[in-house]
Amino acid sequence: AKKQGGNRVVVFDELINKDKSDRLRIEARLRKAIQKKEIAVYYQPKMNAITNKITGVEALLRWNDQELGFVPPDQFIPVAEETGLIHPLWECTMREACTQIRKWNEKREDPLCLAVNFSARQFQDSELLVSKVKEILTECWLTPEYFEVEITESTLFIQSEETIMALKHLKEYGISISIDDFGTGYSSLNYLKTLPINCLKIDRSFIQDLQTDGSNSEITDAIINMARSLKLQVVAEGVEEEYQKEYLLKNECWHMQGYLFSKPLSKNDMEKYLNQ
Ligand code: C2E
Ligand code: CA
Ligand code: CA
Ligand code: CA
């Protein structure tokens, strides 16, 4: 009678072992890729949908490995977090993106704001993180006003006091703080009121749920209203269709990001985009 259960355990063990060896392989390749600077920074435009002008970019990593092929960030970022490789990876990303934005901004009338994603793990030593951010911005000559930190709601709940102190310092320094994937976590209105944040980014899933008839819009509406009453900015991510844009504009959400405007672009393609 135990046979079936036994078999299941074996299958399950094999799955775990496969998962483990996949991760070990990703870890080994990732370590090399970071050393050799093989992970590219892509840039996705953030738009003011009223003026149809770009206001900034979000840095998103792209890794095409010789052995593993294309590995999406959703796969390698968790490995980087578990292994601590997130620290060197983040530092390379920061230096490259900050330097790049500074260069682009030299030729622009209205400077672009650079948004970088920060992982929860990075807030474990929050004092070091804050001083590193300041150091890199200074070295790359990027004004804090043109830098933005994106963190998810869950990051706020892990090591929350440390994290909140760090965010407070970054905000005092002039950096903007955005809550990414907003609506997927558990933030209450009362809790949000106390946080040092500037902006809520409505999660893509809610934007994709918007129907042409507007029946699935309650959460989007609620987030827009919540942002308004807290005097926070609001950005919609994952805008792919014209009707989504129209809906958001009608509801006074003016800042958007998504394939309707542009996919994340390589440095060269971003340059073309800015010069067109
Ligand atoms: P995220 O921060 O929520 O980034 C938005 C994701 O949505 C990106 O996926 C982007 O390419 C995708 N996206 C943007 N517009 C659209 C759209 O209109 N439709 C659809 N279907 N997708 C859209 P990506 O680049 O695969 O990144 C996935 C996640 O990996 C990011 O989610 C972020 O959490 C993480 N990530 C990427 N780069 C970094 C990084 O440098 N550091 C950290 N810590 N995390 C990163
Ligand atoms: Ca993000
Ligand atoms: Ca997001
Ligand atoms: Ca996400």
UniProtKB/TrEMBL annotation:
Its main location: membrane. Keywords: Cell membrane, Membrane. Residues 23-276 form the EAL domain. It is found in: Cell membrane. This is EAL domain-containing protein. It comes from Heyndrickxia acidicola. The lineage of its organism: Bacteria, Bacillati, Bacillota, Bacilli, Bacillales. The chain holds residues 566 to 841 of 841 of the full protein.
